[in-house]
Specification:
By secondary structure, this protein is α/β, with parallel strands linked by helices. The chain has one domain: Alpha-Beta Barrel (TIM Barrel), CATH 3.20.20. The protein is 42% helix and 14% strand. It has 10 helices and 8 strands. It has an 8-stranded parallel barrel with strand order 1-2-3-4-5-6-7-8, surrounded by 7 helices. α4 links the parallel β3 and β4. α1 packs parallel to α3. The mean pLDDT is 97.
Amino acid sequence: MPDFLYCLNSSTIKPAPILEKIRIAGEVGYAAIELWHDDIDLHLSQGGTLADIRQALDDAGLAVPTTIFLKGWWDTTGEEYTRAMDEIRRRLDQAAHVGAIHCVAGPPLGKVDYDLGTRNYRKLLELGLEYGVRPAMEYLGFAEEVNTIEDALRIVDGCGHPEATMVLDPFHCFRGGGPMESILKLEAGRIAISHFNDAPADPPPEKQHDPDRVMPGDGCVDLKKYCDVLRKVGYRRWLSLELFRRDLWEQDPREVARIGLEKMRAAAEA
């Protein structure tokens, strides 16, 4: 038995319609798929329903660890915060209908007020639990401040909520400069999901962004070490292939998903 469950983040085969993404993930052999709300909204705008998506997931035998993403919850106030939370409620309702366990809560990209973020994350969690969905805090390696596991921990630990979790990602560790060993500060139950990818040696880390990510094993990140640290904290759940490469979007999505799963297994089970 492998130590991890393999998941496809639907961004990896972005141009495919959502029902096709789900079908491909199931046929190729993934155990789960992460869905983006933009894809859900596109499906609905074309006459589809949330029930269609849920049925496709059930037919494919796929779990939905997360939907992506919630924004505006941290750094807004007044009427702007009210509008952001209205949109978040809409997305949480979608997440609940497709059976998602978590919904990724993205941070601001610039300077932040950690006290405000901590308070608002707790409110976000309490709201999400009304829908049966747990918002998971994400750090982003290219954000100005919230770019390491320690930064995310300030929110996850600081909010004092037992359901607080975070999203891990080896690319964001590489890009943000935080050590993989920081994972040892987490209990397995604090990890909602780990995205999985690699990063090239060039350009330098501080110049890299989402489109620079590469398939696991095709870059310079020590993914064996990353997975070993996950094992040490007892994490045995999803590794989710998350890429944003236009060259992959132009290829056969089934083949991209198949190769990605092979490369994930090779990197994680080495």
